[in-house]
Write a structure and sequence with these properties.
Layout (H helix, E strand, L loop, with lengths): L1 H7 L10 E2 L6 E7 L8 E8 L8 E11 L1 H7 L4 H8 L13 E2 L3 E9 L11 E5 L11 E5 L3 E3 L6 H4 L3 H14 L11 E5 L4 H12 L3 E6 L4 H7 L3 E4 L5 H6 L6 E4 L5 H5 L10 E4 L4 H8 L1 H20 L4 E4 L6 H12 L7 E6 L3 H9 L6 E5 L5
Parallel strand pairs: 10-11, 10-13, 11-12, 13-14, 14-15, 16-17
Antiparallel strand pairs: 1-6, 2-3, 2-5, 4-6, 4-8, 4-17, 6-7, 7-9
Length: about 375
């Protein structure tokens, strides 16, 4: 790269191609996997190649903090590899036939180092946050590349460690509640919202989001998370361990919206808790899309997925309720709106534990143990 050679020689990077801040190394530290598997697959290296800007809308970010999500555990084990590899190289143009070494981690809070030609909203030195799509190299590294439209200015009220806990879960909840579920600040007031699996990263964000929009929120979690749910604004908290959950929820008035972070058998009865023929909506984040493609291949997996979602949508529509799937969607503009909510005090980060960069395997083990109350965050710039 011309700009790297120029920087090493003490010269100036060619402004015609990139806007950069000084950075000279040719390799960086990162946590990677060279195969799919358990925690033993994680490997620390100081020789991961520096990310390069390949498109004019990209930026390089120096990672100050990252965080882990359940998708990182799944990707470490190979979940979604068929679909993600197709997205990484849809035309099979790459000479290498492997995605390895693969860096995990989706959340980043850090500082812009370089900008492509068409990036006008950011400049080197800006403090930003983002959620990197799972088909791209992740954030458990010193630097990461993101598209400019995936990036937003970090909330001024948060540190990098705090900010790194929010982008992926925030955008996932935003997708489910707003883009798929249709709720917003103007129509949410007074609506009864049920959140299943409320104490995880997506759940804690969703509770705060719909409460900020004026909803009546019922949160389902275990007893030891009840105080947290009340602190975040939940009106009713149901302990799923204290008895038959379905019966406990049936004793309450019907709901206008349900967000399901749990899936499994819950889907069989949860839709019966919605108000019929009123526009009430059930949205689940637990879908078979990537599993179908892993098992059946791209074509058959997409066909099976289409049949499944189509049949369930029609089935429940005939019963007077809407059935939807939701997915994480990267979006800088949506992060802008989330940042406003954070800086206004309506949404706060919920962090379970912070690990240093050298403790990434321990962080994965913590997440794998389950029952987290918020997010597992990695302080990347710490060298302890």
């Amino acid at each position: 790269m011309l700009w790297r050679r120029a920087l090493r020689a003490g010269g100036r990077a060619p402004c015609r191609a990139l806007r950069v801040s000084a950075r000279a190394p040719s390799a960086m530290p990162a946590w990677v996997i060279d195969r799919y598997g358990c925690n033993e697959a994680l490997r620390f290296t100081r020789d991961m190649g520096l990310p390069a800007i390949r498109f004019p809308n990209e930026v390089v970010i120096k990672v100050h903090a990252a965080s882990l999500n359940p998708i990182d555990l799944s990707m470490r084990s190979g979940y979604g590899a068929t679909a993600l590899n197709m997205k990484r190289d849809p035309l099979k143009l790459k000479s290498e036939e492997t995605e390895f070494p693969l860096t995990l981690g989706r959340d980043v809070s850090g500082v812009v180092m370089e900008c492509g030609l068409s990036v006008s909203y950011f400049k080197p030195g800006d403090e930003v946050w983002a959620a990197i799509p799972p088909w791209k190299q992740g954030t458990l590294s010193e630097f990461v590349v993101a598209s400019g439209n995936e990036v937003s200015f970090k909330p001024k009220s948060l540190s990098h460690t705090e900010a790194a806990s929010l982008p992926y879960v925030g955008l996932t909840a935003w997708s489910a509640v707003h883009q798929v579920g249709g709720l917003n600040q103007s129509n949410c007031s007074g609506k009864r919202v049920l959140i299943l699996g409320a104490s995880g990263g997506v759940g804690t964000f969703a509770v705060q989001l719909v409460k900020a929009w004026g909803a009546h929120v019922t949160a389902v979690c275990s007893h030891d998370a009840s105080a947290l749910m009340k602190k975040l604004g939940a009106d009713d908290v149901i302990d799923y361990k204290s008895g038959n959950l379905e019966e406990q929820l049936k004793a309450l008035p019907l709901f206008d919206f349900i967000l399901d972070n749990v899936g499994g058998s819950t889907e069989k009865w949860a839709l019966n808790l919605l108000k019929k023929w009123s526009g009430a909506t059930y949205v689940t984040l637990v879908t078979p899309f990537l599993i179908n493609m892993d098992k059946l291949g791209v074509a058959d997996g997409m066909l099976r997925t289409g049949v499944t979602i189509g049949s369930k949508t029609v089935k429940h529509l005939c019963k007077g309720v809407h059935y939807r799937w939701a997915f994480f969607m990267p979006s800088g503009p949506n992060l802008d709106e989330i940042a406003e909510l954070v800086d206004s005090g309506k949404i706060q980060p919920v962090i379970d534990q912070v690990f240093t960069f050298s403790e990434v395997p321990k962080a994965f083990m913590k997440l794998e143990g389950g029952h987290a109350r918020g997010k597992t965050v990695i302080d990347v710039i710490s060298r302890k």
